[in-house]
TrEMBL record:
This is tRNA pseudouridine(55) synthase. InterPro entries: PsdUridine_synth_cat_dom_sf, Pus10-like, Pus10-like_C. GO terms for biological process: tRNA pseudouridine synthesis. Its EC number is 5.4.99.25. The keyword Isomerase applies.
């Protein structure tokens, strides 16, 4: 649509009058149109995307003169000028070379905190009406169209490529503007399950008073390759519960999600099958064979482990001590008759320093006890509600868990080893 198209000029005449009350000194032509309420799209034409000289001629045709002051407009901080836009496009093009991205983009604009106050003061001092068209909206429309034209990319509100522009002062091409522009890619989400084969490995880095209490952590084993290959700024880890340092996670593994923040590429540039296979191999090497990644895939943020964690069941296997010899057949029949068994647990003494005191009800859904060669030792398999303190169910925690295994068998019981065999989660997890 050319600037002299009759339908555009006619449409503009409804907004541009011969005299405009409250002229603003050094107001750019686009801000003049904003104060007059001219929309971004008019008569099928992207008005604010027209070149600055064209807009000035349009205003002159309608006897509305505006000062061609490109760099010091108080109403837009200099954002809505051709010179500044071209500079921004050049900076954006240069910065995009550091990334591997799709052919879409979106724009976000953050204005300095004092901008609204400046507008109100300006309106009071000059008797000028406040702009009716939002500056951010206008700039996104104006800048987005130019980026599409110059960089051959398409604007999309759901794009993984975000061009952030943070304006802290009046924009002047004579000053450095690179710091105002940043490229931020959407997080990439990895999900899977991990097996932990060590009794000396914490889930997250275990550091107290700057002293590391566990030599390594599952998080660090999982992060290293992702950070290195994707150039990420940070990773965030979320799992379907956690096991103690001395507890192994066996069987089907524990579900987890890793959020990779500000990577240097979008997920479409990751060769999923090859990348995930190599990631699993590198985790195994990094952990000395103590951490295995299962069912790994690239996912999205729609699934929350926290929401489903407490609604599922978990399967455990324990090695337990029993103070007196009992008949295995009688024990098995007796314990199976008790389930489902509801227990009450106060916050265990071992975690009371970091968790609030509370009483929780949990259900034991299955109990199976098999004796070992020594009649005082046995293997106990349990299926419980998520959130059950299994160690305390075995030894009672000085009466803070009722009933516990010892009170059910009428003797003293204790736990020697504990393994998690299965963590039940949503059926679509994998």
């Amino acid at each position: 649509m050319s600037w002299d198209d009759e339908s555009v000029r006619s449409a503009l005449q409804r907004y541009i009058q011969v005299e405009t009350k409250g002229q603003v000194e050094n107001c750019c032509v686009r801000c003049r149109l904003r104060t007059l309420g001219v929309p971004c799209k008019l008569a099928g034409c992207d008005v604010y995307c027209l070149p600055q000289p064209t807009l000035e001629r349009l205003c002159e045709v309608n006897n509305n003169h505006t000062e061609a002051c490109a760099n010091s407009c108080k109403l837009c901080l200099g954002l809505l000028t051709d010179q500044v836009l071209q500079y921004f496009c050049s900076v954006i093009q240069t910065k995009l070379k550091e990334f591997q991205v799709d052919d879409t983009f979106r724009i976000s604009v953050k204005l300095c905190e004092s901008y609204k106050d400046q507008l109100l003061q300006l309106a009071c001092w000059t008797d000028c009406p406040l702009p009716q068209v939002d500056l951010k909206q206008c700039f996104k429309w104006y800048c987005g169209t130019e980026i599409e034209r110059q960089l051959h990319k398409k604007f999309a509100v759901d794009s993984d490529v975000e061009i952030r522009i943070e304006v802290k002062q009046v924009v002047d091409v004579g000053k450095e503007l690179e710091d105002m522009v940043s490229i931020v890619l959407a997080p990439i989400y990895f999900q899977g399950r991990y097996r932990k084969l060590s009794r000396r490995l914490s889930q997250s880095p275990w550091i107290v008073d700057n002293v590391r209490l566990a030599p390594d952590s599952i998080e660090e084993c999982l992060y290293d390759y992702l950070m290195e290959q994707l150039g990420a700024k940070e990773c965030r880890f979320s799992a379907g519960g956690r096991e103690d340092v001395d507890v192994r996670m066996l069987g089907t593994g524990r579900p987890f999600i890793i959020q990779v923040l500000e990577p240097k590429c979008t997920s479409s540039y990751v060769n999923h099958e090859r990348f995930l296979k190599e990631w699993s191999r590198r985790v195994l090497l990094r952990s000395g064979g103590q951490v295995q990644v299962l069912d790994a895939k690239i996912s999205n943020a729609s699934f929350s482990l926290k929401e489903s964690e407490m609604m599922k069941q978990k399967t455990y296997r324990c090695v337990v001590y029993i103070s007196k010899s009992l008949n295995e057949g009688i024990i098995a029949e007796y314990l199976s008759s008790l389930v489902p068994l509801t227990i009450e647990q106060y916050t265990p003494l071992r975690v009371l320093h970091r968790r609030s005191l509370a009483k929780r009800k949990r259900v034991i859904h299955s109990i199976q006890l098999r004796k070992m060669l020594n009649p005082h030792f046995g293997i106990l398999d349990l299926v419980t509600d998520a959130g059950t303190y299994v160690k305390e169910f075995i030894h009672g925690d000085l009466g803070r868990t009722r009933p516990h295994l010892g009170s059910l068998l009428g003797c003293e019981t204790d736990i020697l080893q504990l393994d998690v065999l299965h963590v039940d989660i949503a059926s679509d997890w994998g």
